[in-house]
Amino acid sequence: MLQQTRRMKVQPPGPLGWLVSFLFAVTLLMVPMALAQVPTDDQKRTAGDEAVTSDMGGMPLLFRTPETGLAIGGVLLYTSGLDKKRASPIISGLMYTEKKQILWGVGARQILDGEDRSIYAYSEIARFPQTFFGVGRNTKRGEATAYQEERQNLEFGGDQELLPHLSVGSGLILRNDTFKSLESAGKGLLGSGLYRGEDGGPQRGAQVYLLWESTNDNYFPSQGQKIQLFSQHYIKQWGSRYPFSAQKLDARSYHLLAPNWIQAHQFFVQNLNGDPPFYQLAQLGGNDLLRGYYKGRYRDRKLIILQTETRYRFSKYWNVALFGGFGNVSREWNEMPDEALKPSYGTGVRYQISPKQKINVRLDVGWGDDQGGPQIYLYVMEAW
Q1: Quick check: 21 and 152 in contact, CB under 8 A?
Q2: Left (φ > 0), alpha (ψ -120 to 50) or beta: where does 173 sit?
Q3: R_g of the chain computed on alpha carbons
Q4: Each residue of 100-153: pLDDT tens digit?
Q5: CATH of domain 3-41+54-380
Q6: From start to end of the chain, where are the E strands?
Q7: Is 193 left (phi over 0), alpha (psi -120 to 50) or beta?
């Protein structure tokens, strides 16, 4: 088949790129200083029965998803305030994939005095070759376009606890995307100006959110709920090239049905208004939202997903899971019922690599209905 290569406009990093890189480096410098506070074995013995207030861990990563292929990397996690109601984590991760994707991110949350307020920051630099299938729920796999995105992202803000388990927060989002080149088979979807956002550029906005969290564990909950409601606004006057607004609801519920049996549910809704760029549209598929579909296999302004998962622990370190769900995208909400929802189902096995933190490595196989065949996911921690 004839291969065509098109060049897209290259945007220089600009001030935002330098700012993200600088803050990213500063954040990295904070990690060794935080790790220096971890007590040694001698210090622990000297402390006697004094409670340990911090913990540090790191692990190499080897994982696989349809979007990345085989990937390697590592993560470093330092947590302080273990003796408090809420802990303060700093996490840094780096990955490289067989598709030549690079992602480097650092995130931190600091619980302030009184334990009812916190501040957070997240910085990310990525070079991500990926695939665009078009916009809408009836796109064709054979018309997919490969393109390379370079992304710099910085988010920071804080939250205040209003009631037990309920917090309100706000923050700023600074993002810049550039598209170096693309290769398409046949006609191709990108490069001709058909889709808004092909030139990339800066996106600057603000978000507010409500968070309800009553789960009994951060990484492997068996009881409780976690509900997040976000409202984001990218503002032209602040320098956003593509101003738009977005709302997102992510509601999760966990139930201990019997010893070693957990039932988990997730209801996810995303709504975009205005004229967003193609790379910020709501995307169905991937490692967490309907396994069995390539991430972004279907994308549009509206997205709705309902999924469930049954988890069973049959030994000290091993778990199995069955999962299923359905969802779809559409341009307007009144168009959503016009077509059957897209199904997803699959199974997987988990191995607990960190009993203290209850962190699992999981191997999942998921199926969808877009004739792409089964999708295999090897990843650290649960999908949701």
Answers
A1: yes
A2: beta
A3: 22
A4: 999 999 999 898 877 889 999 999 999 988 889 999 999 988 888 888 899 999
A5: 2.40.160.50
A6: 3-7, 54-65, 69-80, 88-97, 102-111, 117-132, 145-163, 166-185, 201-213, 224-234, 244-258, 261-274, 282-284, 298-300, 302-313, 318-330, 342-354, 359-367, 375-380
A7: left
Classify residue 44 as left (phi > 0), alpha (psi -120 to 50) or beta. alpha
Residue type, 36: A
Fill in the amino acid letter for 149: E
129: its two tokens: 């070759």
For residues 102 and 126, the answer to whether their CB atoms sit within 8 Å is: yes
pTM above the 0.85 mark? no
Smallest CA-to-CA distance from 246 within 175, 180, 308, 190 is with 175
- Nearest partner of 152 among 130, 173, 125, judged by Cα: 125
Q: What is the DSSP string of 51-102?
A: PP-EEEEEEEEEEEETTTEEEEEEEEEEEE-TTSSS-EEEEEEEEEETT--E
Q: Which two tokens stand for residue 253?
A: 């519920």
Secondary structure of 183-233 in HEC code, one letter for each residue:
EEECCCCCCCCCCCCCCCEEEEEEEEEEEEECCCCCCCCCCEEEEEEEEEE
Candidates 91, 53, 31; CA nearest to 219 is 91
What are the extents of the domains in the chain? Answer: 3-41+54-380
DSSP state of 279: G
User: Which residue, 178, 171, 72, is CA-closest to 125?
Assistant: 178
CA-nearest of 259, 242, 247, 260 to 201 is 242
